[in-house]
Amino acid sequence: MRIVKILVTGTAGFIGFHLAEVLAARGDDVVGLDNISDYYDVRLKHGRLAASGIMKEEIQYNRIVQSAKHPRYRFIKLDLMDHDALFGLFDREGFSAVCNLAAQAGVRYSLQNPYAYINSNIVGFINILEACRNFSTNHLVFASSSSVYGLNEKMPFRTSDNVDHPVSLYGATKKSNELMAHAYSYLYRIPATGLRFFTVYGPWGRPDMAPFLFTRAIIEGKEIDVYNRGDMQRDFTYIGDIIDGIVRVIDNPPKANPDWNGASPDPGTSPAPYVIYNIGKGSPVKLLDFIELLEKIIGKKARKNLMAMQPGDVVATYADVESLARATGFAPATPIDRGIGEFVRWYKEYADKLV
Fold it and tell me: Which of 38, 41, 190, 217 is deepest in the core (most CB within 10 A)?
């Protein structure tokens, strides 16, 4: 299925930037949206946009900017909480599909600024749902997170697992997004797919994530904070594999599950056209092994500051991606050493622009 016109929110962000690039390159008509918040260094966000042909000096609020790189990619600076402007955009453009990646990210920041998560992840998301309902969007793909698994210790994480015990407000807002999307899918028959992202890394990655933080500190000879004394595992997944999975999902809107049984409900599917997938590598890496690999690629030892577990964090993440693979052919294949090598090469090229 080829999408005629797609809205991608969060295109100044890590995943959204890469997704817009791939969709535009294959010929889709793409509108990117972002409010360019200052949660982290906006120079990185403007750098991503510039790499997509969207120049900083041309950006104005609620104004479409044409990419100088992709003939069928346009960008608009807009906040999802701006109901009227968002509805105006949907009315003008008539999107066939929406991929909502815009959100207030980060587990630890949710302990400091909880209202940012309610505003962006709840109010912003209900505006997306209402726009999809009022303007007849054919498929809504939205970002959830492995953080919804919270206190669940059964590995690997499966979408059929109970996720009623989040340990961060961030995780709670992402679980809320899943519930909200299901209600709209059930009531208004909007095909909706939720993607529980695991630890995504690669070029243009977020500066608040471990690969960026560790790489910068090792290169600069500074200490890295290693939580739970390094006794952690993460399902690191390379950005190229993630984007391949998202594109496959966009092209395959869900159908109602005819075998769904309310007496024994499967949380991952529904009698509505709604489905939840894990999207990850499916092979967790020990944090200390990850640091050792970074040391090898950078050619310098890390100075580790071994710390206690942080509130809101979890010891391990491990995705079962069988249902996504079965539905779309998703098969993440990038080895961790190659992926980290690509990230470090990008970082060394880009770091001087963030000094």
Answer: 190
Report the predicted TM-score, pTM, of the whole model to 2 decimal places.
0.94
In this structure, which amino acid lies at residue 306?
L
Instruction: Name the E strands within the chain.
Output: 5-9, 29-34, 64-66, 73-77, 97-100, 139-145, 192-197, 199-201, 223-226, 233-234, 236-238, 274-279, 285-286, 303-306
Give residue-wise pLDDT tens across range 102-143.
988 877 778 788 999 999 999 999 999 999 999 999 999 999
Q: Which residues are catalytic?
A: 170
Contact between 241 and 281 (Cβ < 8 Å)? yes
For 298, phi and psi rounded to 5 degrees? -75, -30
CB 77 within 8 A of CB 60: yes
Cα-Cα-Cα-Cα dihedral of 253, 45, 71, 55, to 10°? 160
Q: Cα separation of 101 and 144, whole Å?
A: 9
